[in-house]
Amino acid sequence: MPRRSAGLLLYRRTGSGEIEVMLGHMGGPFWARRDEGAWSIPKGEYGQDEDPLAAAKREFEEEIGQPVPGGPLLPLGEVRQAGGKVVTAWALEADMDVGEIESNTFTMEWPRASGRLQEFPEVDQAAWFAVDVARVKLVKGQVALVDALLASVAT
Closest by alpha carbon to 103, among 71, 136, 60? Predict the structure, then answer.
Protein backbone atom coordinates (compact mmCIF):
# COMPACT_ATOMS: atom_id res chain seq x y z
CA MET A 1 0.00 0.00 0.00
CA PRO A 2 1.51 3.37 -0.99
CA ARG A 3 2.18 6.07 1.57
CA ARG A 4 -0.55 8.69 1.50
CA SER A 5 -0.46 12.44 2.13
CA ALA A 6 -3.11 15.13 2.09
CA GLY A 7 -2.72 18.86 1.60
CA LEU A 8 -4.22 22.23 0.80
CA LEU A 9 -3.35 24.47 -2.13
CA LEU A 10 -4.22 28.07 -1.30
CA TYR A 11 -4.80 30.39 -4.23
CA ARG A 12 -5.66 34.01 -4.74
CA ARG A 13 -6.48 36.31 -7.62
CA THR A 14 -4.36 39.35 -8.38
CA GLY A 15 -5.82 42.74 -9.30
CA SER A 16 -5.58 41.72 -12.96
CA GLY A 17 -7.40 38.44 -12.30
CA GLU A 18 -4.35 36.16 -12.53
CA ILE A 19 -4.13 33.18 -10.19
CA GLU A 20 -1.30 32.88 -7.66
CA VAL A 21 -0.69 29.85 -5.45
CA MET A 22 0.96 29.57 -2.06
CA LEU A 23 3.78 27.05 -1.74
CA GLY A 24 6.17 26.06 1.01
CA HIS A 25 9.91 25.48 0.54
CA MET A 26 10.91 22.15 2.02
CA GLY A 27 13.20 22.53 5.01
CA GLY A 28 16.30 20.62 5.99
CA PRO A 29 19.77 20.25 4.56
CA PHE A 30 18.78 18.32 1.42
CA TRP A 31 16.68 21.23 0.13
CA ALA A 32 18.63 24.19 1.55
CA ARG A 33 20.38 25.12 -1.70
CA ARG A 34 17.62 24.07 -4.09
CA ASP A 35 14.84 26.20 -5.47
CA GLU A 36 13.42 24.62 -8.62
CA GLY A 37 11.56 21.45 -7.72
CA ALA A 38 12.01 22.11 -3.98
CA TRP A 39 8.61 23.61 -3.14
CA SER A 40 5.42 21.81 -2.16
CA ILE A 41 1.85 22.41 -1.15
CA PRO A 42 1.49 22.21 2.65
CA LYS A 43 0.79 18.51 3.13
CA GLY A 44 1.62 15.52 5.24
CA GLU A 45 1.11 11.83 5.73
CA TYR A 46 -1.94 10.35 7.37
CA GLY A 47 -2.94 6.91 8.64
CA GLN A 48 -5.53 4.46 7.40
CA ASP A 49 -8.10 5.52 9.97
CA GLU A 50 -7.66 9.28 9.52
CA ASP A 51 -9.86 11.46 7.32
CA PRO A 52 -7.69 12.91 4.51
CA LEU A 53 -9.29 16.37 4.73
CA ALA A 54 -8.73 16.52 8.48
CA ALA A 55 -5.10 15.54 7.85
CA ALA A 56 -4.73 18.23 5.17
CA LYS A 57 -5.98 20.89 7.58
CA ARG A 58 -3.77 19.63 10.42
CA GLU A 59 -0.69 19.60 8.20
CA PHE A 60 -1.39 23.11 6.91
CA GLU A 61 -1.48 24.43 10.47
CA GLU A 62 1.66 22.48 11.45
CA GLU A 63 3.71 23.54 8.44
CA ILE A 64 2.55 27.14 8.06
CA GLY A 65 1.78 27.91 11.70
CA GLN A 66 -1.49 29.64 10.90
CA PRO A 67 -5.07 28.37 10.99
CA VAL A 68 -6.67 27.25 7.75
CA PRO A 69 -8.67 30.19 6.36
CA GLY A 70 -12.41 29.74 6.00
CA GLY A 71 -14.07 29.17 2.67
CA PRO A 72 -15.30 26.46 0.33
CA LEU A 73 -12.83 23.73 -0.59
CA LEU A 74 -12.39 22.50 -4.16
CA PRO A 75 -11.33 18.86 -4.43
CA LEU A 76 -8.32 18.56 -6.74
CA GLY A 77 -8.06 14.77 -6.71
CA GLU A 78 -4.96 12.67 -6.26
CA VAL A 79 -1.48 12.69 -7.76
CA ARG A 80 1.32 10.16 -7.44
CA GLN A 81 4.77 11.56 -6.72
CA ALA A 82 7.99 10.05 -8.06
CA GLY A 83 8.64 8.09 -4.85
CA GLY A 84 5.20 6.48 -5.09
CA LYS A 85 3.47 8.59 -2.43
CA VAL A 86 -0.15 9.44 -3.29
CA VAL A 87 -1.17 13.03 -2.47
CA THR A 88 -4.83 14.01 -2.12
CA ALA A 89 -5.42 17.75 -2.27
CA TRP A 90 -8.01 20.47 -2.00
CA ALA A 91 -7.82 24.09 -3.14
CA LEU A 92 -8.99 27.04 -1.10
CA GLU A 93 -9.28 30.64 -2.28
CA ALA A 94 -7.80 32.82 0.45
CA ASP A 95 -5.14 35.43 0.99
CA MET A 96 -2.74 35.42 3.90
CA ASP A 97 0.59 36.92 4.85
CA VAL A 98 3.22 34.21 4.61
CA GLY A 99 6.21 36.46 5.30
CA GLU A 100 6.75 34.76 8.64
CA ILE A 101 5.70 31.18 9.14
CA GLU A 102 6.17 28.92 12.15
CA SER A 103 6.64 25.38 10.90
CA ASN A 104 6.94 22.31 13.05
CA THR A 105 10.37 20.66 13.03
CA PHE A 106 11.98 17.29 12.52
CA THR A 107 15.23 15.86 13.89
CA MET A 108 17.89 14.10 11.87
CA GLU A 109 21.56 13.27 12.06
CA TRP A 110 23.46 16.01 10.24
CA PRO A 111 26.03 15.97 8.82
CA ARG A 112 25.57 12.33 7.94
CA ALA A 113 27.50 9.89 10.11
CA SER A 114 28.52 12.74 12.45
CA GLY A 115 26.52 11.49 15.42
CA ARG A 116 25.05 15.00 15.81
CA LEU A 117 21.29 15.34 15.84
CA GLN A 118 19.95 18.62 14.50
CA GLU A 119 16.47 20.05 14.27
CA PHE A 120 15.13 21.54 11.03
CA PRO A 121 11.79 23.11 10.07
CA GLU A 122 9.61 21.02 7.76
CA VAL A 123 8.96 24.19 5.77
CA ASP A 124 11.55 26.96 5.96
CA GLN A 125 9.62 29.60 4.00
CA ALA A 126 6.35 30.11 2.17
CA ALA A 127 5.57 32.40 -0.76
CA TRP A 128 2.98 33.24 -3.39
CA PHE A 129 3.79 32.41 -7.01
CA ALA A 130 2.21 32.99 -10.39
CA VAL A 131 1.08 29.71 -11.92
CA ASP A 132 3.88 29.56 -14.51
CA VAL A 133 6.52 30.08 -11.81
CA ALA A 134 4.82 27.59 -9.48
CA ARG A 135 5.09 24.87 -12.12
CA VAL A 136 8.88 25.25 -12.05
CA LYS A 137 9.18 25.56 -8.25
CA LEU A 138 6.94 22.59 -7.37
CA VAL A 139 8.15 19.03 -7.04
CA LYS A 140 7.19 17.49 -10.37
CA GLY A 141 4.55 15.16 -8.97
CA GLN A 142 2.46 18.08 -7.70
CA VAL A 143 2.33 20.18 -10.88
CA ALA A 144 -0.87 18.38 -11.90
CA LEU A 145 -2.55 19.88 -8.82
CA VAL A 146 -2.04 23.39 -10.26
CA ASP A 147 -3.54 22.20 -13.54
CA ALA A 148 -6.52 20.73 -11.67
CA LEU A 149 -6.95 24.04 -9.82
CA LEU A 150 -6.97 26.02 -13.08
CA ALA A 151 -9.51 23.61 -14.59
CA SER A 152 -11.73 23.96 -11.50
CA VAL A 153 -11.71 27.75 -11.37
CA ALA A 154 -12.19 28.06 -15.15
CA THR A 155 -15.60 26.34 -14.99
Answer: 60
